[in-house]
Design a protein that fits this description.
By secondary structure, this protein is an alpha+beta fold. It has 2 domains: 181 residues, Diaminopimelate Epimerase, Chain A, domain 1, CATH 3.10.310.10; 159 residues, Diaminopimelate Epimerase, Chain A, domain 1, CATH 3.10.310. The chain has 6 helices and 21 strands. β1 and β2 form a beta hairpin. The longest helix has 17 residues. 49% of the residues are buried.
Length: 377
């Protein structure tokens, strides 16, 4: 059997990697598109390694992106994100990827979709998943993306140029409301497991926040310590799905998407050691976070989740606000790989909380370009 050859670029954006396509290069029906993506990434894989594809066995590298010139007046390109499940034949388009969004501008410039303007080029991006706009400020040189620089981010070795991402009015990206339930804290009862106080917030993506202490955790735990506790993982997934229904994302728990909402354990900062062996003092970050998505604990932070967490830290009465040290300017979020800075501008208008803008900084790099080989149907 011959294989299909589809033009693609394999890119890192922030702390994620994915296969990038020009939308026109995959002009097929949705079912065939999903089949191609599953083969391209190597899913489903009962062994969890995706050896038969480009994926790497963790959710942060089992991703795909489609980009095309935009017909909108307020955007230069359209960006569609696909999260590919590792162990199930599922391609989830319900959310977006903030980390890979940092690679959209560089891809668009190098592909000739956006003309470079001097040393810094603004790329206006419309995310089709959440129907939202963000502006990427991309370093450029000689008409192309300039990836060389001395900026570093947690969880990624080496340095790169600093890409600024401004997410405009990110509130209600998934549900239509910054506080989907209208409250800063809700209580969810899970049978014999008891009551859980949660904060449901939707900024850049929908998230549910719960205190790590409710599970006997401190917020300094390693990824493996959490993932190896089957009882905690099962309870968190049950809580995530119940919160998804509460937020209006589905009519029942079975209908809640794998990628939305994300769930996050939050705690006051403590001394801890990162996955890279670096010691972090409790005095450095403002809050500690452990995010779960697609049934796994993130090694760093999903960027959309980090932006939602930063927004929640600015909303009085939420659980993140309760355990976040007061701060002006950037918020420093402790995670398994280090400390991530995020700036969230939040205000109150007519008594309602409003997310005005969230700003983050990432690096990106094209790793390989050519074609992806996929078995024909």
């Amino acid at each position: 059997m011959t294989q299909m050859r589809i033009p693609a670029v394999f890119m890192r954006g922030g702390s994620s990697k994915g296969v990038f396509f020009k939308t026109d290069d995959m002009n097929v029906e949705a079912s065939e598109r999903d089949r191609i993506l599953l083969h391209a990434l190597g899913s489903p894989d009962a062994y969890g390694r995706q050896l038969n594809g480009m994926g790497g066995g963790v959710s942060s590298v089992s991703k795909a992106v489609f980009i095309n010139p935009s017909a909108r007046d307020d955007a230069d390109v359209d960006y569609t994100f696909a999260q590919v499940s590792i162990d199930q034949p599922i391609v989830d388009f319900s959310t977006t990827c903030g980390n890979l969004s940092s690679a959209v501008g560089p891809f668009a410039i190098d592909a000739g979709m956006v003309e470079a303007t001097g040393a810094m080029t603004r790329v206006r991006v419309f995310n089709t998943n959440l129907k939202s706009i963000y502006h990427a400020h991309v370093p450029t040189r000689n008409g192309q993306f300039d990836e060389a620089g001395d900026f570093t981010i947690p969880g990624v070795s080496g340095t790169g140029s600093k890409i600024g991402l401004d997410y405009l009015s990110p509130g209600g990206a998934s549900t239509g409301r910054l506080l989907p339930t209208g409250r800063g804290v809700d209580t969810i009862t899970l049978g014999d497991d008891g009551d859980f106080d949660v904060s449901c917030v939707d900024s850049s993506t929908a998230c549910v926040f719960v205190a790590a202490a409710r599970f006997g955790l401190t917020g300094t735990e390693s990824v493996s310590m959490i993932e190896e506790n089957a009882e905690i993982m099962q309870t968190l997934e049950h809580l995530r799905r119940r919160a998804g229904v509460l937020m209006g994302l589905a009519e029942d728990e079975d209908g809640v998407p794998l990628g939305t909402p994300k769930i996050c354990l939050v705690a006051e900062p403590r001394d801890y050691v990162t996955l890279g062996g670096e010691s972090v003092s409790a005095a450095t970050p403002h809050i500690a976070a452990r995010f779960l998505s697609m049934g796994q604990v993130h090694r760093v932070l999903p960027l959309t989740g980090a932006m939602c967490l930063a927004t929640a830290c600015r909303i009085e009465g939420t659980l993140p606000w309760t355990c976040c040290c007061p701060s002006k300017g950037e918020l420093l979020l402790a995670n398994p790989s280090g400390v991530l800075p995020v700036k969230a501008d939040v205000s109150q208008k007519a008594g309602d909380w409003v997310a005005d803008k969230v700003t983050v900084y990432r690096t990106a790099r094209a790793l390989m370009e050519g074609v992806v080989l996929v078995p024909e149907a």
